[in-house]
Specification:
This protein is α/β, with parallel strands linked by helices. The chain has two domains: 35 residues; 128 residues, HUPs (Rossmann fold). It has a five-stranded parallel sheet. Helix 3 links the parallel strand 1 and strand 2.
Length: 197
């Protein structure tokens, strides 16, 4: 399987001259350690408190900026729930998305950091009911919302989470956004059209 021999195997073989109960205890400890490694790799909490982190967005043309946001948000807990805003709300927020809601959900779900995708997440205002329904402990969001609405009572997106103290701001990825990608694609297409004529 390509796995290196764990140093404990060597130790256990050295202890083989000892009694069987000692070997049995060492084998049990070894299997617990392997199980712990597996849980850590799969991002499943083992004998720890589950802390669910939530972030939401449109995630159209999911790019490295979104994936960095997911990785940074996961630092606040051990399970990441990502809300993907539906097509109708996304159109009211910015512009109609290029990808459908199902495509955007599938793209986000494929990210390693993401534990669960919540489709048709609310775009305008997280409520107590929504947070309770999904057992959300921390809400991660872009720091631009703090700049836009310094007073949490004025924040139409994350106001409730900020008021109850579970909101955690995260920095944006500089120089990369979905709008930038769309502009670059359009510029590339314009250049191709000029070369064709």
């Amino acid at each position: 399987a390509g796995r290196e021999i764990h140093p404990w195997i060597v130790l256990m073989s050295m202890f083989a001259v000892m009694s069987h109960p000692v070997i049995l205890v060492l084998v049990i400890i070894y299997y617990i350690a392997i199980f712990g490694d597996l849980c850590s790799y799969l991002n499943m909490p083992l004998m720890t408190v589950c802390r669910n982190v939530y972030c939401d967005g449109v995630y159209d043309l999911c790019h490295i900026g979104h994936k960095t946001l997911f990785r940074n948000a996961l630092a606040f807990g051990n399970r990441l729930f990502v809300g993907v805003v539906g097509d109708e709300d996304a159109s009211q927020y910015k512009r109609p998305p290029i990808m459908s809601a199902a495509e955007r959900c599938a793209e986000v779900e494929a990210c390693k950091s993401v534990t669960k995708v919540i489709p048709n997440a609310p775009c305008f205002g997280l409520t107590k009911e929504f947070l309770d329904e999904h057992q959300i402990h921390v809400v991660a969001f872009g720091e631009e919302y703090l700049e836009r609405w310094p007073d949490p009572k004025d924040d139409i997106y994350y106001g409730y989470a900020r008021q109850i103290g579970i909101a955690r701001p995260l920095p944006r990825t500089k120089g990369l956004s979905t709008s930038d990608l769309i502009r670059r694609i359009q510029a590339s297409r314009s250049a191709d059209d000029r070369n064709d004529t």
